[in-house]
From TrEMBL:
Domain of life of the native organism: Eukaryota
InterPro entries linked: ATPase_NBD (IPR043129)
Annotated protein name in UniProt: Hsp70-like protein
Native source organism of the sequence: Polytolypa hystricis (strain UAMH7299)
Length: 608
């Protein structure tokens, strides 16, 4: 089989798996820049186009078989058991603390099954359009949330995607592409900015808001290149939290008249926040509804004649004041502004001479008229108290805000295939990676650290030290970072793999621990490096050497950091070692356990 580098696709399909909606778009050879969005989905009317499909699946009762997915799931149906909002449950950091919350295993199954349905639908759509489709090579690229920082988790997700996709055709491959924040940034650059413009992209969707700061470094006409000025960050801020707050408010009111309802308040409240409420929420801030003092929602089990002033229900409708809805928006927009302020302050510290040109909003929540008004008032109005690096920032909304991520994913790959250049050359790593090693003992540096005497050279070494190869926030070239190794191997062990223990930390670079004796680093994987084919010299081999003979083996391990994943390459004498028999570096990922590293993942704070 060809290696991934040699395998070039005829069609590239981007898939943006979102908390509430999932999008798919594609582009194909030879006109890669021509991009199409999948807009027909099962369950919609023939004349109906939808940019994305709802992220949900439904199973038949007591059965593993899928009954429906996306638009085919009907929340109005009695006894429907729809699995939705499971994206966050894929993360091991997410703590499920509400009744009936799914386990990670369940969420993984729903994810795999949902992706399989999306895949089948995309394949069916493409096979109707492309002649000789079975012989076409199709690459499916998935974006990953910015909050998924652990490469072990990405490996798991990759495994689930492989289960959903690969079995069907040897011509189809699945890869993890950019993070959502990166993809949204690539898309935002479509809007013809100028060289040296610095753009802060804020992609706010159903469950998360991602922020990314980039500078346009390419000249007009050349392939677009962006320089990342900061590592991408995500926070649990999104439109679903408004639904949740209103759901909570409705439940509280219904609780007062529970005896008259016939169904649990929680269930009724879920029904009430679909339909009309969603339309009102999505139009909030627009002129058309600005004069409505309140929103009136039908209470499903009550007739037109019923009134319960204690629950603010009149003639079978609950009245929710505009201010109450605005308060829910304001809470989340305040969080969003805090988040953006943190990024601006960090930028000012790291790049004091860079000035922000644009704040670009994308995603469903980012497309809200009210969100835009508030951000304009906060950052670009005449009365705004401005940050020194954002004095002339302009707030703009991405062209098609919902599609920013999925289009950005495809655009990045398409430019690479067509012009050989990716948008984001070097990237600022979101976490730090290091290897555990022994280093010559230094009394000042290693006071209190565990030590060992090497019987071969009789020298003292501090052990369990961490050599931080990649540090959070520092730019890393796409070709990776290299670490030289010079190891001594006993002659009888020359064919055994050399073990390298890789660790990671999400702590800021200046707080990274020096060794495993301190908190803050967790194991990611163990590499087994097979040293056949690398430079070796036998030492102490002469009759006059009194010390035992050993091999001095020299090689480089290259750490290639992708948007979310991690790969390793073995190099010796400036050549990459490839082996036909097995991978020169075998990776054994450390399994998860509930980790408490003293740092709280942003997912952890998300309660739904
Ligand atoms: N104008 C609007 N105002 C407020 N919310 C909106 C608006 N338009 C869409 N939304 C909400 O945005 C969400 C969909 O946006 P999007 O598709 O960007 O999210 P997602 O990709 O599912 O979420 P995430 O990226 O967090 O995983 C839904 O919750 C929808 O109700
Ligand atoms: Mg999204």
């Amino acid at each position: 089989m060809e290696s991934l580098e040699e395998w070039t696709p005829d069609i590239v399909v981007g898939i943006d798996f979102g908390m509430t909606f999932t999008g798919a778009a594609y582009s194909f050879t030879p006109r890669w820049s021509h991009l199409k969005t999948i807009q027909r989905w099962p369950g919609t009317l023939p004349s109906e186009l939808a940019n994305k499909a709802p992220t949900c699946v439904e199973y038949r009762p007591d059965c593993m078989e899928i009954k429906g997915w996306g638009f085919l799931c009907n929340p109005e149906e009695e006894a429907s058991d729809i699995k939705e909002f499971f994206k966050l449950h894929l993360s091991p950091h997410y703590q499920e603390d509400y009744p009936g919350a799914p386990s990670r295993r369940e969420a993984q199954r729903w994810f795999r099954d949902y992706i399989r349905e999306i895949y089948k639908h995309v394949v069916a759509t493409l096979s109707n359009t492309f002649p000789l489709f079975p012989s076409r090579r199709v690459e499916f690229i998935f974006s990953v949330p910015t909050t998924w920082k652990d490469p072990r988790m990405i490996e798991e997700v990759r495994g689930l995607i492989d289960e959903a996709i690969h079995s069907d055709s040897p011509n189809h491959r699945a890869v993890i592409g950019l993070t959502e924040a990166e993809a949204a940034a690539v898309y935002a650059c479509k809007q013809l900015y100028q060289k040296d413009d610095v753009i802060l992209i804020c992609d706010a969707g159903g469950g998360t808001t991602d922020v990314n700061v980039l500078k346009l470094v390419s000249s007009p006409g050349a392939p677009i290149r962006l320089q990342q000025l900061n590592n991408v960050e995500g926070r649990p801020i999104g439109s679903v939290f408004i639904d949740k707050s209103i759901h909570h408010l409705i439940c509280q009111r219904l609780e007062r008249i529970r005896h008259c309802l016939g169904r649990p308040p929680n269930e009724i409240a879920w029904k009430m926040i679909s339909g009309r409420f969603q339309r009102f929420k999505c139009s909030f801030g627009e002129d058309a509804i600005s004069t409505l003092p309140s929103l009136k929602l039908d209470v499903p089990t009550l007739g037109r004649g019923s009134s319960f002033p204690e629950a603010e229900i009149y003639n079978g409708q609950m009245s929710i004041a505009r201010e109450e809805i605005q308060r829910c928006f304001d809470d989340k927009i305040d969080d969003m502004c805090d988040f953006i302020d943190v990024q601006l302050d960090r930028m000012h510290l790291m790049h004091p001479f860079e000035h922000m040109s644009y704040l670009v909003l994308s995603g469903g929540f980012g497309s809200s008229a009210y969100v835009r008004q508030r951000l304009c008032a906060r950052y670009s109005s005449e009365t705004a108290v401005k940050k020194p690096n954002a004095e002339s920032i302009q707030v703009i909304t991405a062209d098609e805000p919902y599609l920013a991520v999925v289009h950005g994913l495809v655009m990045n790959r398409a430019q690479q295939l067509e012009r050989g250049v990716v948008y984001l050359g070097s990237r600022c790593c979101r976490v730090s990676y290091g290897i555990i090693c022994s280093v010559p003992y230094n009394a000042q540096r290693h006071l209190g650290e565990p030590v060992k005497i090497d019987s071969r050279d009789k020298k003292t070494y501090a052990i369990n030290q961490i050599d931080w190869i990649v540090k959070q926030g520092e730019p890393i070239p796409p070709t990776g970072l290299s670490r030289p190794f010079g190891i001594k191997v006993e002659p009888g062990q020359i064919n055994d793999p050399w073990k390298v223990h890789v660790v990671m930390s999400t702590l800021p670079a200046r707080e990274l621990p020096q060794s495993m004796t301190h908190d803050g680093a967790k194991s990611v994987c163990i590499l087994s490096v097979y040293t056949e084919g690398v430079e070796k010299k036998l030492k102490n081999r002469h009759w006059y050497n009194s010390d035992p003979a050993y091999w001095m083996v020299k090689f480089n391990v290259k750490v290639v950091v992708g948007p979310a994943d991690l790969k390793f390459e073995l190099w010796s004498e400036n050549k990459q070692i490839r082996s036909s028999k097995h991978e020169p570096i075998a990776v054994a990922w450390t399994p998860y356990k509930k980790e408490t590293e003293g740092e709280v993942s942003s997912d952890q704070k998300f309660l739904l």
